[in-house]
Each structure stands twice: as C-alpha cells, then as structure tokens.
C-alpha cells in the first residue's frame, strides 16, 4: 500500500533524526533505543559496538569534547524489513589545535544499515562517508599553521578532522569511505547485499 510505504520511510527518517538529536543532546537513554542489540558505529575516532560508542561519547562529553551533527536530505531504500538510509550531514568539532581554538566542519553522508525489529526500526551499522572538510580558527584574527606532513597522512575527505582528533589523543582510522574510490564502492555493494537479505559484509 502506498500509504504504508510512505509511513515506513518516515519511520526510518525519524530514526536517523533521533540519532543526531539525542546523541548531541547527551540523551543517552533514548540514544540507546535507536540501535539494534548488535548495532555498531564506525566513526573516525571510534569503531565499536553501540554500547561502546555510547560509553566513549559519554567520556568525551565529560572531558568537554565538542562534536555536533547537522542533517540534510535523506534517501531511503526499503526491501521487506530491511533499509538503507543515506543522509546528507555535517560533523562539526571544536578544539584547540597548536594552541588555537578551531572549528572543523566535515561534509558527508551517514550510510545506515537498518532493520525492522519487534520494537521498530533499528540501526544495525552506521558507516559515515566523508566527502570534504575544512578547519577555521574561531577567532579569525589568530594565525594557524598546520604540519603538512601530518595533514597529508589522512584521507582528503576528513584530513582536517583527523588532524584535530589525533591532536587531542584519538587514534583515527585512516581508510574510511570518501566521495569516490574502492572503499565507498565496496560500501555500496554491501548495502545492496543487505537489501537482498544477505548477511552484513563490511570490514571494520
């Protein structure tokens, strides 16, 4: 039924929106409800089961780590009880880099493997796609010089974000999917397999 199909798409979109609102607000109890029991998060700074990601986020929150998300358009494909959602997003993080407080803004997409369970739609895997980023001093009068060798170690799509995160003590994963390339094509293939009912096949 067309109305039922629209309702299910809206439910998936609401799930995606709840993830960003509840995570950024520190509403950890409701944030837990968006995940399947085996749910997993793949972020530059943390690749872990959902509960591990929540713990790491809480620890960062307590230390003053500032990571926020803003969502744009969302495309949802549903086959049976499975869905793939792609959502335009930005990740914003503020921290000092070489003594200068900066904002990094990374543009990309959330690529979510989602399944309908007895208690509603749940995220089984979230894999961001990192397309481009930039770093700006919060005070534009301050001058910032980056280490070009360190910056060059990270992929183009999130190199400034990785530079900041490594500087505050995180071990950053250096092979995340970007706008183009084999890694993102493999992610799309895993998503297509998910919709066909295949087991989730995605490397950490």
TrEMBL record:
Source organism, top-level taxon: Bacteria
Residue ranges occupied by any SnoaL-like domain in the UniProt entry: 5-126
Entries under Pfam families matching the protein: SnoaL_4
Gene3D superfamilies: 3.10.450.50
Protein name: Nuclear transport factor 2 family protein
Native source organism of the sequence: Roseomonas populi
Lineage, uppermost ranks: Bacteria, Pseudomonadati, Pseudomonadota, Alphaproteobacteria, Acetobacterales
């Amino acid at each position: 039924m067309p109305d039922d199909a629209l309702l299910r798409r809206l439910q998936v979109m609401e799930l995606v929106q709840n993830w960003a609102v509840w995570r950024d607000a520190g509403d950890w109890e409701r944030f837990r409800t968006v995940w399947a029991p085996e749910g997993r998060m793949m972020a530059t700074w943390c690749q872990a089961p959902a509960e591990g990601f929540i713990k790491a986020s809480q620890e960062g929150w307590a230390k003053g780590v500032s990571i926020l998300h803003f969502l744009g358009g969302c495309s949802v494909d549903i086959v049976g009880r499975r869905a793939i959602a792609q959502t335009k997003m930005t990740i914003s993080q503020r921290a000092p880099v070489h003594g200068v407080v900066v904002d990094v803004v990374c543009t990309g997409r959330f690529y979510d493997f989602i399944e309908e369970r007895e208690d509603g739609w749940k995220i089984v895997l979230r894999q961001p796609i990192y397309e481009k980023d930039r770093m700006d001093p919060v005070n534009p009068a301050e001058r910032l010089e980056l280490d070009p060798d360190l910056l060059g170690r990270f992929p183009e799509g999130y190199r400034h974000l990785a530079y900041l995160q490594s500087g505050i003590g995180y071990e950053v994963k250096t092979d995340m999917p970007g706008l183009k390339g084999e890694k993102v094509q493999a992610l799309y293939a895993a998503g297509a397999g998910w919709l066909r009912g295949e087991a989730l096949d995605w490397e950490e």
